[in-house]
């Protein structure tokens, strides 16, 4: 199951980078949740496919070209933690930019139920850790 979960998260990154937001929506549960990293512009919690896809479209609108690379990943039970490098080029200016972010993605069945973004690998790993009793 972990290999399938890792591939699902990789496919979500490919679809995001390709601008295939309807395809990305199909990889997510209807009640998918996205939590932006602290300090991200408009960073907050987005709930439900429509809200999540609308926010992802907003995040892409200023970029003429983009690429999203999964640099490393680790599957743990129903979670996949990955390091992402988002490379962009301004639509009008052509200026390049890059941002590294870490994601903890929770999978339910064969769809992604949650994307939690962080600035640090260890924070993403901690988010995917089972609760201590």
Overall shape: it is globular
Number of strands: 6
**Subunit arrangement of the protein:** single chain
**Class based on secondary structure composition and strand pairing:** alpha+beta
What string gives the helices and strands in order?
Answer: HHEEHEEEEH
Strand order of the largest sheet: 2-1-6-5-4-3
N-end to C-end Cα span = 25 Å
Report mean pLDDT, rounded to a whole number.
91
Q: Can you summarize the main beta sheet?
A: 6 strands, mixed
Question: Ranges with pLDDT <50 over ≥5 residues?
Answer: none
Strand content: 35-45%
* Rg from Cα: 14 Å
Number of helices: 4
Bin the helical content: 25-40%
Would you write up a description of this structure?
This protein is of the alpha+beta class. The chain is built from four helices and six strands. It has a six-stranded mixed sheet, sandwiched between helices. A hairpin with a 5-residue loop joins strand 4 and strand 5. The two termini are 25 Å apart. The model has no long low-confidence stretch (mean pLDDT 91).
